[in-house]
Amino acid sequence: MPSLYKQLGLGAAGSPVNASHLLMLVLGAGFLAFTVFVVHPNDFRLQSFFSGACPGSPPHDPVLAPVNATPKAKAATTTPVKAPDGHPGVRVLIGIQTMPGKYERRHLLRTVYALQLQEHPALAGAVDVRFVFCNVTSAVDAVLVALEIMRYGDVIVLDCAENMDGGKTYDFFATAARAFPDGAYDYVMKADDDTYLRLPALAAWMAGAAREDAYLGLQMPCDRENFYPFPPFMSGMGYALSWDLVRWVASSEVSRRDRVGPEDMWTGRWLNVAGKAKNRYDGAPRMYNYLGSSPANCFRRGFRPDTIAVHMLKDAGRWAETLAYFNATAALPPSALYHLP
C-alpha cells in the first residue's frame, strides 16, 4: 500500500487523501461490484442501457398500428430446447376481437384468463392473450384505452375502421405476421369476446396438432341442416391458423382481394380456394355455443367437463353460469364474499 501511495503521489505532505481514505474507496468499490454482479446480476443489462430500454420492459409494443417493422429471422439453435414441466410445448397468440368501448367485457376476460394462468403457471409462457380493435376514434376512448395500454400492455390496435365483417380478421392476421418474428408463435387464434376459452384444454389440444398447414376450430357446417351448403370453415367463435398460414394470409392476393364478408366463412374460403390447410382439426363436441333454453344441435349443447370453448355468452348471467359450472371461483375462501365481523 505505501508504494501505491508514492506511485499515485498520495500521502505526501499537503495531500488531501491519506491511507484510510484510499482504503475506504477500495472497499466501497468492491462492495458496489459485489452488489451489481453477484446480488443483482439481472438488473445490470448493458444491452438495455445502450439500446435505451429499461430492464424488465415488455418485449413488444402493445400498439401495433401502423406496423412497419421487418420481422426478425428465427434464431438458429443447435440443440432442442425442452419445454418445462407442464408446458404444452406450443405457443399461441389469441386475438380477442372487441371494440374500444367494451371496457367491462375486457376487465372480465382479463380476470378470467389471468386466474387460469395463475393456476397453471406453465401456460404463461405458452398463451398470449391480446384484445384487438381498429383505430380509436372517440376522444373518450382515446384517453381510457391509453390508460389500459399503459397498465396492461395487452391491446393491439389495427390500422382500420372498426368493423366485424369488413376485413378486420384479415387485418389481424396480416398485422400479426408483420409485427411478430417467425418462431414467436406456432398458432395465431382469432376469438370473439363472448367466447370462454379454457386455456389448459386449448393448449393441450393444440399440442397434438400439426405445426404447419393447420386450421383448428369448430368446423361448420356440422350437418346438412345447419348452414348447408356452405363450404367447410371454422366457426368465428374461435379458430386458429398455424404460423405458416398466417404468413400466407398476409402475403396472398386471394385473401387481400376478398376480405369483405362473414369473416369466419371467408377465412375458410381463402384456404379452400388456395388448397391450403390440409391439416384440419374439428373441436366438436368440445367447442360449442351456449345452450340455455334453445334446442340442442350439432353446434349448440350443454356444458361438458372436457370443454375447450363456450360461445354466445352475451350477458353477465350466462358468464356467471358458465364460470360456476367450471368452478372458476373454487379457490375463493367461503367467507370472502361476506363483510368482516
TrEMBL record:
GO molecular function, one term: hexosyltransferase activity
PANTHER family documented for this protein: BETA-1,3-N-ACETYLGLUCOSAMINYLTRANSFERASE, HEXOSYLTRANSFERASE
Listed name of the protein: Hexosyltransferase
Membrane-spanning intervals of the chain: 20-39
Chief localization: Golgi
Coiled-coil stretches noted in the UniProt entry, renumbered to this chain: none
Cofactor(s) essential for the protein: Mn(2+)
Keyword list, A-Z: Glycosyltransferase, Golgi apparatus, Manganese, Membrane, Signal-anchor, Transferase, Transmembrane, Transmembrane helix
Membrane topology field: Single-pass type II membrane protein
Upper classification of the organism: Eukaryota, Viridiplantae, Streptophyta, Embryophyta, Tracheophyta
Top enzyme class: transferase
Subcellular compartments: Golgi apparatus membrane
Gene Ontology CC: Golgi membrane
EC numbers: 2.4.1.-
Family to which this protein belongs: Belongs to the glycosyltransferase 31 family.
Metabolic or biological pathway, per its Swiss-Prot or TrEMBL entry: Protein modification; protein glycosylation
Stretch forming the signal peptide: none
